[in-house]
Amino acid sequence: MKADKQNALRALFSFAGEAKGRMTLSVLLALVALSAALCMCLRAWLTGASSMRSHGISFTILKNIRFALADKMARVPMGVMLETPSGTFKTLLVDNVGRLEDIIAHMVPEFPSNLSAPLLSIALVFAMDWRMGLACFVTVPVSLVFMVGMMHGYGEKMATYLRSGNEMNAALVEYVGGIQVVKAFGQGRRSFGHFADSVRFFHDSMLAWWKQCWFWMAGFKAVLPSTLLGTLPLGTYLYMTGSLELPIFLACVILSIGFMPGLMKFGFGLEQLTYMAANLKPIQDFLATPEQHRPQQPARLGERAFRFEGVGFSYDGETQVLRDMSFTAAPGQVTAIVGPSGSGKSTVAKLMAGFWDATEGTVSFGGVDIRDMPFDQLMGEVSYVAQDNFLFDLSIRENIRLGKPDADDREVERAARAANCHEFIAALPKGYDTLAGDAGDLLSGGERQRITIARAMLKPASAIILDEATAYADPESEAQIQEAISRLVREKTLIVVAHRLSTIRNANQILVIDGGRLIGRGKHPDLLEGCPLYRKLWEQHISAADSADETEAM
């Protein structure tokens, strides 16, 4: 049967005559068409595979950059973290890193194709006719003029534009975080100076950048691909004079039109390198921040006392904040630190917590210089409660449990009772399961402070530092916090940086600081007699308390 079909087909083509060769050509063209279709499918698959892999690489790089930034945050002085606006870190981790995605995912893998295809086309044009090859580049000198005009001051203006965007993002985070204060004092967005100024700066810098380059960029994009300005007149002349065949003329014209867009993509890819460098700079600057170097092996600690010996400190290496500070804070005692605003009280507390390293002298804990013990070990021994206490948008139970993650509910409740906050927690709609809100904004200042003290009491720390932890407390909360503080001192080293002197009147030791120097030390009665500054601070405190009582009575 198969042989009969072959014989029939052979018999049919025996009548082809002069058209016999054309059928062979037809079959070959069909095969070429099939190969082209397969190549198109292969191209689409390879492009997709390349895009998937480049995006995967891009996301891996961005992940590693963010991890590197997060790791760096854990190694730099804690003071850097506390004193840098949160919006700055948001911009660094989200915006600066995010802007690198397209550059990695598209620019890098497309660089070879954007360059190789035009180069092959140019080589082919020159191979067919070198005169037409030269004519393809007649627009290059003019376009280079536009390029030079566009790049004049381009890097500086782009850097300013990116910096202005980062500053606006940081100001926006601050504005949103303080919107309650802005509204409470009737301040609109225009009168909130920092935010308004940052928006204007972003607007002006962006406008300056585009004014600088839009005309030149438009000219460059219009002139460079207009290869017909050279190839069409020259090719027509050469064809009319008989020195260029029509097929070659047409091929050169078509190829010259096609390769310029690829070269333009390559050129704009080079521009992206400038954009990438501008976004990488703040990342690299932060990664270059000096770190606190700590040993890996835990230190052997003695009596859990803080000792300052000739300590001096400067934030910027120039202005001295503390000078020749020497004292000891012993276990089982309350050491209070008082002084005028800006005297250096909180700086002393932050040095104890290891947030900064002393620039002169020694800060030791347990008989060991804190620079000679791992930071994790110090944090395990010290519980620090700041003035701006922070609660996560978790249940109150979980916020307290942060002091000891493996604590059971009974331990959490016991700490809450010790901090005098069990009663108000129990009265909440969901008790300990009530959410604290964003940064604890569903609770009053005094309630937040008592919860953070409960967290500190739950933590199995041998030293507790309260850095103006009663600053926002009302009189009732202050009394309860003071009672809680008396419980904290049992077998612990307790440091209290105080603004309200009534909370530290019964402290075992009161340190009076002024201008970064220790000018008085002793108990409350002794300092009232022997320290003029302390006596002045106490009189001001009593006067302020009396005025508050009179106002409340009215």
UniProtKB/TrEMBL annotation:
InterPro entries: AAA+_ATPase (IPR003593), ABC1_TM_dom (IPR011527), ABC1_TM_sf (IPR036640), ABC_transporter-like_ATP-bd (IPR003439), ABC_transporter-like_CS (IPR017871), P-loop_NTPase (IPR027417), Type_1_exporter (IPR039421). Keywords: ATP-binding, Cell membrane, Membrane, Nucleotide-binding, Transmembrane, Transmembrane helix, Transport. The chain crosses the membrane at residues 25-46, 132-154, 214-240, 246-268. It comes from the Bacteria. Pfam families: ABC_membrane, ABC_tran. Residues 9-274 form the ABC transmembrane type-1 domain. Residues 306-540 form the ABC transporter domain. It is found in: Cell membrane. GO terms for cellular component: plasma membrane. This is ABC transporter ATP-binding protein.
